[in-house]
Amino acid sequence: MYTREILSPRGGPVEEGIPVTGTWNRAFSHVNLLDIQKPYRWSLPRWLRDFRIKEWQGFCVQDGRFFMAAFLGNFKLCRMAQVVLYNRESRETNVYRKLLPGGGWKMPRSLAHGTVECRFSRFNFRIHAWLNADTVKMDLDIEAARKHPALTAHLAFCLETRDFTPAVVSLNFSDRRNMYAYKSLASVRGDIVLGGRHFSLYQENCSGVFCDYKGFFPYPMKGLFCCGIGFDGEGRRYGFHIAENQARETRKNNENALWVDGRYTPLPPVRITMPCGPESDWVIQDLDGMVDLVFTPDVKNRFYMNIFATRADFYSLIGNYNGIMVDETGEQVQVRNLRGSAEKLYMRV
Asked: In this structure, how many other beta carbons lie within 10 angstroms of the beta carbon of residue 42?
């Protein structure tokens, strides 16, 4: 069975100007990829190196009624905020999106106490990471438009380390260019007001995965992301976040994670295939017998942009996962109609 070393906690993913690779189970105190000395062959000014770093924070949350997937991304040529909210009872989907030129958002370099916010006319979205208080909070306030009702939401992830173990990785694309990711499954509480109707979310039956990404991602940037959250047949909270990205040496180190009852299991690299295209079934498998899943989307959302030398093609899908996963103890986790999301990203920016 696949295993991966969990390293001792450290301050950040850069040491003496060189990126450090590995997997940890505690958040870094500070992440600044500009500390890397000469990430490219040529000596570039600091502003140009910063321009090549892409970063975002995102989350998925679900209870018995709602599934929400959202992110705030700073891609330097542009900023993007997106919220996809699916109501399982009414089968209604609402997509809220804001695309802004430039890279004006300052993404926090520490999750101990940092905020990123999209404040715009009729669209406010704020993520406040506060790991010093064992929480991450999200606030949404979006006015009604022709295509969607008004949405207000206040959500809080409960990230006490005695209950939930995070996954933290640093992966290399080259000797001096890397990516960092923080991921954690947690219980979630909060409130949603959709079109004037109020709904409360309770920790007992609401779960979420929060992610923080930064990296000198390749040009063009490609990635596949799969996330599922819920409760198993024994009533245990579980979930996973799996990606197929452009990092090298993924057998030795990757970002794939499974949580069962708060316990984190590093997963092997996977192969994700879509025999009939991204809007049909996704097959997610590994070579170690720990991941064998099929994702079937039923909520389909695509964003496409092609302006001069810039291109973005982003699928954001919601559906069900079925199959089997294996945790670090060798226990088979039966995945049956687990609600989740899948994303296919291509970005040339």
From this structure: 6
Does residue 149 fall inside a structural domain? Answer: yes
Structure tokens at 54: 């892409």
Percent of the chain topping pLDDT 70: 100
9: DSSP letter: P
CA separation for the pair 21, 126 (Å, rounded): 30
pLDDT tens profile 169-205? 999 999 999 999 999 999 999 999 999 999 999 999 9
Bridge partners for 276 per DSSP? none
What is the extent of the structural domain holding 21? 14-348
Residue 120's pLDDT band (cuts 50, 70, 90):
confident
**Model pTM above 0.90:** yes
Residue 8 in any domain: the answer is no
CA dihedral 295, 297, 298, 303 (to 10 degrees): 160
DSSP 119-188: EETTEEEEEEEEGGGTEEEEEEEE--BTTB--EEEEEEEE--TTT---EEEEEESSSS-EEEEEEEEEEE
CB proximity list for 78: less than 8 A, separation 6 or greater: 99, 100, 101, 102, 103, 310, 349
DSSP β-bridge partners for residue 205: none
Is position 253 within any domain?
yes
Q: Domain total for the chain?
A: 1
Strand partners, 201: 190
Element (H, E) at 322: strand 310-326
Is residue 7 assigned to a domain? Answer: no
What's residue 131's pLDDT?
96
pLDDT tens for 309-345 read 788 999 999 999 999 999 999 999 999 999 999 999 9
Place of tokens 């939930």: 164
Distance of CA 140 to the CA centre of its chain: 18
